Amino acid sequence: MAEELVLERCDLELEANGRDHHTADLCRERLVVRRGQPFWLTLHFEGRNYEASVDSLTFCAVTGPDPSEEAGTKALFRLSDATEEGAWAAVAADQRDSTLSLHLSTPANAPVGHYRLSLEASTGYQGSSFMLGQFTLLFNSWCPADAVYLDSDEERQEYVLTQQGFIYQGSAKFIKNIPWNFGQFEEGILDICLMLLDVNPKFLRNAGRDCSRRSSPVYVGRVVSGMVNCNDDQGVLLGRWDNNYADGISPMSWIGSVDILRRWKRDGCQRVKYGQCWVFAAVACTVLRCLGIPTRVVTNYNSAHDQNSNLLIEYFRNEFGEIQSDKSEMIWNFHCWVESWMTRPDLQPGYEGWQALDPTPQEKSEGTYCCGPVPVRAIKEGDLSTKYDAPFVFAEVNADVVDWIRQDDGSLHKSINHSLVVGLKISTKCVGRDDREDITHSYKYPEGSPEEREAFTRANHLNKLVNKEETGVAMRIRVGEGMNRGCDFDVFAHITNSTPEEHTGRLLLCARTVSYNGILGPECGTKDLLSLSLEPYSEKSIPLRILYEKYCDCLTESNLIKVRGLLIEPAANSYLLAERDIYLENPEIKIRILGEPKQNRKLVAEISLQNPLTVALSGCTFTVEGAGLIEEQKTVDIPDPVEAGEEVKVRVDLLPLYVGRHKLVVNFESDRLKAVKGFRNVIVGPS
C-alpha cells in the first residue's frame, strides 16, 4: 500500500500570477487574482510525489464567515484532467521530482473577496488536510464572461489600473482640472476596501447572504455608494458644506483617496472629516477600481438637486433679483459622481455599460443614503422606472429652472432667464491622455431634437416640452481677461435690443462670492443704473469692477463669484435675468524633477509657488502624494511668512517603485490662499 502523501509547502507563485492577472502591485506579499482566469499553484510534497492512480486530491475554497456551497461561498473540487466552463477546477500542468504545478480556475461569477484554500489528500483509507494559503479574488474586466468585461485594453488600463487622474471643477464656462491620486494599489488599500464591505449594514445583518451577493457588481457598487458616506453606517466620510472645517480637513485640501481611507481604518472606522461631492466620488472610484470594477469620476455642470421629483427648480426672488427663503432645492455649480462599467442582467437588454453611482449623501434610496447604479442609457432615454434612482439622476441633468420675482404688492412675476441651463459639459478624463472628454451626449440627446422630445415625453417632463418665450431684448454676462486670485477685474452686462423700438429700464448688477453648491456669500461688487436706454437694434456693454479688497475675505475655497444682472422694464412689466459663475485662477505650482527617474533610485522634486497677493502669506504648507513615486503622503511646512510677490521653494525626496507613467500631485495651503493644486507627470524607466 502506498505511503501517505504529505505536503511540505505550497508556493502561490506571486510573481507569475501578479503578472498574468494585472495585480503585480498587490502581489508583493500575498496572492491577489481576478475571477474567471486560471492562476498557478505549485505543491511541494515530502518523500514521494502525487500519483494519479493512488492519490485523490480535493480542494476547498471558502469566503466569508458562513460559507456554503448553496450560496456560492464554498467550493469543493477535485484535481481533474480539464477545466469546466464556469466552475471551480484544478488541473495538473506539470509534474517533476516531488512538485506538482497546478492551474486553478475560478468561475467568472464567483463572489469577490478574501478566500481560504485548503487541500484534502487521500491515499486509500488514509487522508490528511493541508492549509494551502489565502488569496483575494477580484472582478475581472479582462474576462469576457465577467459582468465587468471591457473589450478595450486602453480602457481597462485607464479605468481599472491607472492610479491617478483628474476631477473637473470650476464652472461650465471655466472648467478646471484638479489632479487626484486614487492610489488603489497602494499599501493596505485593498484590505481597507474589503473591510469597508465587511462593516456595511447588509453584511452585519446577514453576512452569508451579503458575501454571496458580492458576485454581482451591481450589488457591490450599491454597497460602496452607501459606505463612502457615513450618514447611516460606519462609512468613510462626513460631508460638510458650510465652510467651517477647523475640526477636520477642508474638502478642498485633499489630493488623494489614500490618506482618507488610511485615516478611516486607523481610527477604527470612524468617519473622516470632511468630504464634498468630488471627494465622495473619488474615494468611491478608488474602492471600485481596487475591487476590479472599471470606474471613472464624472462632473456635471449646473447640476440640479430636485427633492420633490417634479423636475422643476423654482427660485423665488425679491424685486432686486436676490433669492428669498432658505430653499433646499438648488442648482449646484457642478456635481461629481462616478460611472462604473457592468452588465445589468436585472434589467431589459440595452442597459449594460456605464452605470451612474452617486455616493454623496443627498436623498435616501430604499432607506439608505446611496444612489444607483442606474444605466446612463436609461437617463438619456427618459426611462425613469429603471433601477436604481433614475428620477433623481435624470433631474440632475435635465431639470427646468423657473425664476419668480416677488413684486412690492406680493404678486409673483415670472422672469426670463436664458443664462442657466441644467446639465452642461458633463466631463471625465480622456482614456490614456490628460485631456477632458465631454460625455454630455451619453446623458442627453441634442437640444431640440425629436429624440430629446421623445425622452422628455417618456419622462413626463412637461415643462421642457413648452416652447420658451423669446423677447427682443437679451442679456448675458461677459468676462474680461486676467481673472486671477488677488487681482481686480471687470465683468460686463452685455445687452442686445433686436427690436425696432427703444427700450428703457433699470439695470441692477451684483457680484457675490458663492460656494460650488450654490450657497451665496457677501456682496463684492454692485451697480444700479436707474435709467438705462437701449436704442433700436443696438448693443450695450455695462462694466462692473470687482475689487480684490472686496472679495479677499469672503471668497470660498471654490474660488467662485456669481455675477447677476436684472433688467427691469416697468412699461412692459418685464424682468430679464442673467447670471454667470466666474472662477478665479490660482497661482501656478511649478514642479521640477531633479535627476533621471529610474526604478528604486532616489529622486528629488523641487516644488515652488509665487505669492500673487499684495499681502504676506503665513502658515504655508505643501502636501505631496503620488502612487508609485512616494510611499505615503509628505507634508512640508514653511516656517517664515512668504512676502507679496515672493517665491517659496521646497524639495521632496521620491523613490519610484514601478516602471511607467506616474503623477506627482501637490496641494498648497496658507492663511489667505488655500487649496492650490499642481501636478507633474513622471515617466520612470528601469534601473
UniProtKB/TrEMBL annotation:
It is found in: Cell membrane; Chromosome; Cytoplasm, Cytosol; Mitochondrion. InterPro entries: Ig-like_fold, Ig_E-set, Papain-like_cys_pep_sf, Transglutaminase, Transglutaminase-like, Transglutaminase-like_sf, Transglutaminase_animal, Transglutaminase_AS. Residues 269-361 form the Transglutaminase-like domain. Ca(2+) binds at N398, D400, E447, E452. Gene3D superfamilies: Immunoglobulins, Transglutaminase-like. The active site is at C277, H335, D358. Its cofactor is Ca(2+). GO terms for biological process: apoptotic cell clearance; branching involved in salivary gland morphogenesis; cellular response to cocaine; cellular response to dopamine; cellular response to serotonin; dopamine secretion; gene expression; negative regulation of endoplasmic reticulum calcium ion concentration. GO terms for cellular component: cytosol; endoplasmic reticulum; extracellular matrix; mitochondrion; nucleosome; nucleus; plasma membrane. One of its GO terms (molecular function) is GTP binding. Keywords: Acyltransferase, Calcium, Cell membrane, Chromosome, Cytoplasm, Extracellular matrix, GTP-binding, Hydrolase, Membrane, Metal-binding, Mitochondrion, Nucleotide-binding, Nucleus, Protease, Secreted, Transferase. Binds 1 Ca(2+) ion per subunit. Pfam families: Transglut_C, Transglut_core, Transglut_N. Its main location: membrane. Its EC number is 2.3.2.13, 3.5.1.44. It catalyses: L-glutaminyl-[protein] + (R)-noradrenaline = 5-(R)-noradrenalinyl-L-glutamyl-[protein] + NH4(+); L-glutaminyl-[protein] + dopamine = 5-dopaminyl-L-glutamyl-[protein] + NH4(+); L-glutaminyl-[protein] + serotonin = 5-serotonyl-L-glutamyl-[protein] + NH4(+); L-glutaminyl-[protein] + H2O = L-glutamyl-[protein] + NH4(+). Belongs to the transglutaminase superfamily. Transglutaminase family. Monomer. Interacts with phospholipase C; promoting alpha-1 adrenergic receptor signaling. Interacts with PLCD1. This is Protein-glutamine gamma-glutamyltransferase 2. The gene is TGM2.
